[in-house]
Amino acid sequence: xxxxxxxxxxxxxxxxxxxxxxxxxEGWVFVTGQxxxxxxxxxxxxPAGIEGQxxxxxxxxxxxxxxVGLGLEHVLVARVYLTHFKEDYAAMNAVYETYFxxxxxxxxxxxxxxxxxxxxxxxxxxxxxxx
Length: 131
Known about the structure:
With 131 residues, this protein is an alpha+beta fold.
């Protein structure tokens, strides 16, 4: 077994806690949950609605994946965390589904939580696998 690789992605948001953007072991890539902040202006306010926040989260996830030579097509599992579950679930799904081929959607769990860093409404983490 090879040693795990700990990745920090150039162009991704600065971590809000002590973690790596991704950790890789034996071809598995565990992507830390991304927030909806803008890595080009981290002092900017978050988008007001779930649609904009979901798009920002997905863009940040794509940045992290690209930094290790992967894309959303390599994702096998996603976990979504929502602070306003009943209010945001359908709208988040409408945005989320546009990022994946309908024939290759990852397995997914979506849960309601009481709070997220940066007072975000959504956070998503991923598990990807190298081909």
